[in-house]
């Protein structure tokens, strides 16, 4: 049985972040005791699945005691890493982390990039992007980086045009051409797959798409290109813990030939190894 613990977005929806941290545990034991297990916070799919593969197939031989904790939101893994409730996390990309650290005063740093989950546009009402009707409603993630990423995906595929120079803070107000007069519904990223019955299309993060039994490589109307993509997901720790021998060992295992093959075989192009 996998040694996991799940934290739901209900914690955040209730506005009780402190409760979420209590649920993770408290104190600095997980981060400071390098002789104990390395506890890693991760999104269930694909991050916890990849970590569980490492735990069950590679960790013991490498002398690594690994514990995986699952979280379904994009906030608690970083706050738990910052306060020492966990020793590391694996769920995010660099633009998201930069924005999170800036807004929350946290000190999380990347260790090694492992994979890319291409962001995609999905619909139950259209078979291709050109089929979206005038005035269609498109759900997008409401956090700063993922909303910008969603809009840049639509821009790259000619569905909208963003003004020149917009970066990772783009919002619908930065759209300069919208030939289909699309309307945008901003939702917490985890909610976007559940919105598909209520909107005409939704831009969905790869992990949430896979969790919802979507196959990005097959089902997306448009999908991010992996070429020069800045959104690779990495193992991260609180600054100062990069040299923890357990972290170094896990970084080596996550970028091993065995993990690359596991990613290729299990996800068939919906998750792409970045090493």
From TrEMBL:
InterPro entries in UniProt: Lipoprotein_NlpA
Keywords: Lipoprotein, Membrane, Palmitate, Signal
Location of this chain's protein in the cell: Membrane
Record membrane topology: Lipid-anchor
Keyword Signal: yes
Record carries keyword Lipoprotein: yes
Top-level taxon of the source organism: Bacteria
Similarity comment: family membership: Belongs to the nlpA lipoprotein family.
Protein name as annotated: Lipoprotein
Organism: Streptomyces glaucus
């Amino acid at each position: 049985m996998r040694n996991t613990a799940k934290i739901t977005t209900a914690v955040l929806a209730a506005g009780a972040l402190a409760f979420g941290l209590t649920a993770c545990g408290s104190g600095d034991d997980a981060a400071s005791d390098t002789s104990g297990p390395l506890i890693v916070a991760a999104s269930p799919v694909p991050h916890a699945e990849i970590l569980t593969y490492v735990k069950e197939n590679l960790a013991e031989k490498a002398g690594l005691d690994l514990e995986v904790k699952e979280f379904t939101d994009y906030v608690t893994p970083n706050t738990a890493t910052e306060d020492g409730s966990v020793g590391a996390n694996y769920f995010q990309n660099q633009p998201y982390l930069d924005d999170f650290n800036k807004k929350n005063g946290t000190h999380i740093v990347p260790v090694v990039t492992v994979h890319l989950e291409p962001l995609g546009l999905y619909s139950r009402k259209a078979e291709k992007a050109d089929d979206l009707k005038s005035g269609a409603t498109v759900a997008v993630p409401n956090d700063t980086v993922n909303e910008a990423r969603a809009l840049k995906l639509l821009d790259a595929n000619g569905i909208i045009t963003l003004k020149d120079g917009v970066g990772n803070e783009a919002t619908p107000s930065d759209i300069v051409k919208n030939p289909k007069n699309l309307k945008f519904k901003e939702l917490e990223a985890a909610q976007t797959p559940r919105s598909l019955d209520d909107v005409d299309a939704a831009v969905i993060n790869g992990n949430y798409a896979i969790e919802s039994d979507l196959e990005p490589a097959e089902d997306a109307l448009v999908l991010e290109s992996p070429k020069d993509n800045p959104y690779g997901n990495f193992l991260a720790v609180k600054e100062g813990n990069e040299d923890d021998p357990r972290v170094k060992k896990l970084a080596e295992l996550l970028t091993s030939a065995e993990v690359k093959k596991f990613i290729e075989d299990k996800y068939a192009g919906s998750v792409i190894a970045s090493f």
